[in-house]
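Backbone-to-sequence.
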């Protein structure tokens, strides 16, 4: 069921469980995600698959569904012949699909929807989302992000997930872009060691969100598990906000092969 309890209230009260990777669930169901639009392609071609993926995670115990809009951008859809109006419909559909799954789950616990907004590099589909430093100004990045964030916000998710952000400059642009939208946000960096992927210290990167009223949680995602604990502690200390953490398994994205390269196994530490 959906809830009158806001996600911010739930985070203040205790632990909330996120879903797993959308691509993992879709690939396990037999869907080919090799296209540059990744899972966003299915919004146009097979939207029921997106709903089914969300439903599987809700039934497995997730409290929050992250939408299939990570690579859903006007520019990315345009490359595939999808015009502006249809692209906006598909972005809104990403939120609606997660809402539909929440209703179909028929569970007694509260469920929430996080509308994913990936970094500029996700649209480029060249691996730069794990490097940042695109050669764009903060103003240019804000102009890129704001239109789709407006569309996602209008679909009324519970939160905007500003995720896999590799660069503090892009975080600055995103924080500007969510102002006045009327929907809270979380901000998660992709990190390596104690720095963003672009090399900025995490203390400085997280400090950008400390006084942003729109931001209800901060943290990391799509990073090695061993980097997550340190980054989460820094995020909590610098911002005083709840922390959201969803690392990957430590693999590295190979943009040329369009595949993840496995990390060497390491003994468990916790």
């Amino acid at each position: 069921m959906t809830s009158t309890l806001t996600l911010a209230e739930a985070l203040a009260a205790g632990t909330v469980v996120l879903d797993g990777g959308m691509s993992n669930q879709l690939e396990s169901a037999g869907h080919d995600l090799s296209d540059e639009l990744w899972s966003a392609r299915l919004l146009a071609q097979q939207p029921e698959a997106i709903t089914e993926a969300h439903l599987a995670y809700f039934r497995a115990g997730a409290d929050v569904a992250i939408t299939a809009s990570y690579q859903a951008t006007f520019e990315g859809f345009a490359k595939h012949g999808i015009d502006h109006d249809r692209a906006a419909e598909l972005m809104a559909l990403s939120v609606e699909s997660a809402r539909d799954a929440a209703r179909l789950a028929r569970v007694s616990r509260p469920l929430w929807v996080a509308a994913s907004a990936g970094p500029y590099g996700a649209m480029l589909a060249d691996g730069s989302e794990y490097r940042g430093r695109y050669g764009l100004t903060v103003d240019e990045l804000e102009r890129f992000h704001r239109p789709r964030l407006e569309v996602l916000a209008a679909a009324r998710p519970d939160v905007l997930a500003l995720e896999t952000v590799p660069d503090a400059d892009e975080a600055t642009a995103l924080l500007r872009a969510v102002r006045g939208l009327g929907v809270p946000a979380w901000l998660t960096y992709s990190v390596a060691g104690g720095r963003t992927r672009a090399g900025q210290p995490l203390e400085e990167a997280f400090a950008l969100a400390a006084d942003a009223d729109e931001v209800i949680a901060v943290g990391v995602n799509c990073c090695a598990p061993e980097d997550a604990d340190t980054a989460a502690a820094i995020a909590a200390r610098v911002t005083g906000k709840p922390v959201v953490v969803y690392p990957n398994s430590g693999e590295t994205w190979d943009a040329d092969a369009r595949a993840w390269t496995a990390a060497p196994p390491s003994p468990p530490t916790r």
